[in-house]
Amino acid sequence: MSAPARWSVQQEALHADCKVFRVYKEHCHHPLDKREGDFFVIHSNDWVLALPITDDGRIVMVRQFRFGLRDLSTEPPGGIMDKGENPLLTAARETEEETGFTGGKATLLGSCSPNPAIQRNHCHFVLLEGVRATGTRALDEHEELQVICLHPKLALAEAIQNPHNHSLALIALYRLRDARPELFS
Length: 185
Fold this sequence. Notes:
The chain contains three helices and eleven strands, in the order βββββββαββββαα. The protein has helices at 87-99, 152-161, 167-179; strands at 8-17, 22-29, 36-43, 47-54, 59-66, 71-75, 78-80, 101-102, 105-112, 123-133, 146-150. The longest helix is centred in the middle third of the chain and has 13 residues, at 87-99. The protein is elongated, with a radius of gyration of 19 Å.
């Protein structure tokens, strides 16, 4: 069986501007059998999830209400990158804004496509080692966050057991476990 063909976008038009992302209607064409179709694709800046680790080996997490889930979620701090911003800087900025923790050595642990069927952005996972509670928080207008410091093994176990877990948070914790297994012992 041959590899699937790469469809070409013939037309692209803004369908909806939703503040943190835009939905585009893309009319696409198959290069071999000439099929055509309309597809809706979400355009957004890349995202970052930070994995801030304190000097005593705890991971700094936030608990917040998630509107899509209509429930509380415990996850690493993170957010949308500014256009052209480095993921390491975004991770440090979002960690300080959401938790008040600053500093630490930043290391990119990897990236993924959150949902390539309908999204064009990436999520980057950044380890921040040696953070300390030094700053003041600067929450967005609708954010209400509880800061929680957990042993990474407990954070991962809770994420695995929670059927409502943020899937990118789970990937971030797995990336952390793979990069720093000693934190999970």
